[in-house]
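Repro:
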Amino acid sequence: MKSRYNSINFTSWLVLVVMLVGLFTACGYDQAAIAGESQNTNLNISVNDPTASMLPLEKPIEFVSFANPEIGWGISNGDIVFTDDGGRSWSVQVRSSSQPSAIRDIDIREAAEKVIALSSTEALAVTFDEILHTMDRGRTWNRTRLEDVVIRDFVVTDSGRIWLIGEKRLSTPSEGWSVSLFTSEDRGDSWREQKISGPDFLGWTPWRVWAADSGNIWVVGYEVLRSNDFGKTWVTISLCKGIVGVPAAIGFFDDFSGFIGTNERDSFCVTSNGGNSWKTRKLPYMHGGVNGIIQTGKAQLWAYGGAGVYGSNDQGLTWQKVLEGGFLSANYLREYKKLILVGDRIVITNLANYIHSHE
């Protein structure tokens, strides 16, 4: 169940309410090695990895998506930022602003919340209620608004099909809001609503969507929904035992291996059979909490947060600390076998040296 978007943030589901303060500025370049204490002998990570580069950032980047090791887009304090030199320097392409909401009777901050690089020249981004699309490396951005829809998340499959989840205002205020799924097969020029029917699917907030070209679609929020026929029919999924909190993160490496995390951020669920069954795993303890998980192999996971990065080669049974620092987002470039992490710094490291038999 591959997707162009490989990283799921636990903290980003709250971004509509709270945004980090500060503007991103250009930064210098510095070489560094990944280092850590060995606790999991199955994870073969070089203590001195010459392929790893670290660039300190004066202001944090909250989300990142790269098309290749040099060209990528990010979100910094609601602004869309861009680099074409591997993160050595960045420029602001779209600045956030405050304006009255067309959906709700409040002033909202029109801030970018997620961006996905589709190629070295093309990217998609979303705000509270708009979809932004560039095909010229960010020189111009086209904006599309879905009427009466609050956007929560979107994902792009390998074929380029977009799936977007949100809340749609119903006919009258007393009816409230419903979970709504939209899809586009022309890079966002036109959209078709894919109904998610059923009384149990009203009145709760969806936080994340995951989709693949095989027809598997997952929606997580106060419920976990799954479709295996491109959204025509849906079932509610029960997660692993002992999990607490609201499901707020999901990711798959392929059609079989994946995870679901909650906003409690101390445990999560893993599957190796496409979600037919789930097992409970504990996240490594970090001061400041775990911000997210990224999966880069059938059993290979990385947990990142305010106290560094931990790796696991056994679907989260054991963890090894591999990097210090504060990290908010991660992106895996499968073609290049490179893991990119951002927060108070940006780290680009080559995973080819220590992905063994998991591809």
